[in-house]
Amino acid sequence: MTVAMQTVTALRRYPLKSARGEALEAVDVEPGGLRGDRIWACIDHVDGTVGSAKHPARWGRLLDVGTRLRDDVPDPMLIVEVDGTAVRAGSADADAALSDYLGRPMRLSRDIPPDARLHRRLPDEVGMLPEWM
Asked: How far apart are CA 68 and CA 92, in angstroms?
């Protein structure tokens, strides 16, 4: 049996789902993946959906939001950068900045509501969706 060697050329973590990630020199790997990856999400205040760039018309601008996670402190702190302004996730300032930038009322959360939904764009072509969908 031949085993191919793999080389890691870059490490990126995405602390806020569907936002721009951060380049890392090193990161701990946990059973669920990279430590701190996708631990925050944008939740729409109106309908409770989770922000996902898989629905670009609604959430595509999230891809331009910068993030960096300070995990060197006891409670990991997410810093969100919107239009050059850095705000701390979980604050009213962060929610207001993202709401203004995305054009819809939303909030950042580490806790996903039990009835949360996710909007996605799906192909119209027959046979392009798995049967379970």
From this structure: 18
